[in-house]
Structure formats: C-alpha cells, structure tokens
Specification:
154 residues; Arc Repressor Mutant, subunit A; Glutaredoxin; four-stranded mixed sheet; 47% helix
C-alpha cells in the first residue's frame, strides 16, 4: 500500500508535536490512528525513521493493543459485542449472519471495502443484548434476521 504525501505530512506533524516527550510512542501511534484511521507498517517505518524508535518496538505496540488497526476499516465498521450477556443471548448467530451477509469474516474487511466486522469484548449495553455498533451507532436486541436486513440497508 502506497503512503500519500498528505499522510506523510500528517505523520511528521504528529511526531513533531511529541518531539520533546520521552515515552511518546503510544501517544504518537494513537494520534496517527485517530487522524488516519489506522497504523500501517509503512506508517510505522516513517515514525521509526523520524523518532529513532525501533520499528520492531512500534510494531509490538500496535499488535499488542487491540485499539490499533494495521489496515483501514471499511465504510461501515460493525462491532459485534461478545460480552457475557451478548454471548448468552446469541452473539455467535449474529456474527454468522453478518459474515454471510457481507461476504467477509469477523476481524476482516470485505473485498469491496464496505464492511469491517469486529468481535468486541463488551459494548456496555448489556440490557439490550445482543448488541452491535455500526460506526458508533448502537443497535440492541439484534437477531440474525435484523443483521441481514441492516446489511441490505447499508
């Protein structure tokens, strides 16, 4: 994947903002994720070059913390809660319905770039189980049928 000049400029500005702070690796990576949507291996190489933090250390941070993504997400980011209440209420069936409807597996983005499916530990709406989030909008009492309908609407 090519890195654009705009992305490189954004990375340079972020790194410069934290230039005088020791231990700034995580804040730098968080800001890149917030601004650019993900932290690609190419972004990691650029941060390493600018900060002299080994790329292996940066890559270790990005792969350790689940908040970071190495690839861009789809137009519709679907997060399926798998906390205890949602799991007991049928989250596995919801995942299957989304996988079938979008043509992609949980943890991946569809080939057309429209959908990214992620299994998350807890969304925090247990009384509405099973729950999903689409681009931050919460949908409660989800069923396989509702999941398929939602994908058609999106």
């Amino acid at each position: 994947m090519q890195v654009s000049s705009e992305q490189l400029l954004a990375i340079e500005q972020i790194v410069n903002k934290y230039r005088d702070f020791s231990g700034a690796a995580i804040p730098i990576l968080q800001e890149i994720q917030n601004q650019l949507g993900y932290v690609s291996p190419q972004f990691i190489d650029k941060v390493s070059e600018l900060t002299e933090i080994p790329a292996s250390e940066l890559y270790g941070i990005v792969t350790f913390y689940s908040q970071f993504r190495l690839e861009p997400i789809g137009e519709h980011h679907i997060q399926i809660c798998h906390g205890t209440a949602c799991h007991l209420a049928g989250a596995d069936k919801i995942i299957e319905a989304f996988e079938s409807s979008t043509g992609t597996k949980c943890g991946a983005t569809s080939k057309d770039g429209k959908f990214t499916l992620d299994k998350v530990a807890c969304i925090g709406c247990c009384s509405l189980a099973p729950v999903i989030s689409v681009n931050g909008k919460i949908y409660g009492r989800m069923t396989a049928e509702k999941a398929q309908k939602l994908v058609r609407e999106l």
